[in-house]
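**Folding the chain**
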Amino acid sequence: MSPRPPVPPFTEETARQKVQAAEDAWNTRDPERVALAYTEDTEWRNRDVFLQGRAQVVEFLRAKWEREVDYRLRKELWAYTGARISVRFEYEWHDVDGAWWRSYGNEQWEFAVDGLMRRRYASINDLRIGPDGLRIPRP
């Protein structure tokens, strides 16, 4: 596969470009397109799910976007150095029963020299929200 610029080592400008590209791709909700940003042997931790390889990523994302309907994501650069970028993010979605959620989290990314993501570790928390966008307290 050809390089996927920008490539490491990252500057603030190129790290921001990488974050924006990831946000744009994930908002397509197209698992195959999203997976092309990762190495064939990519390693993921997403919450309590551990994945290895692009094929597992595609299957994971298909199932995710079947559960998380009308998903809309925002990412923000948190830090960068060399071949690593950290982001914080939030996204909103509703489940198949129509309940709305806002999910918050942090991701740590590590890139190969060709600019493909080799590792993605995500910690995520979900918060139920009402029609006004405010948190619904747990009983």
About this structure: The radius of gyration is 15 Å. The domain at 12-129 is CATH 3.10.450.50 (Nuclear Transport Factor 2; Chain: A,). The chain has one domain: 12-129.
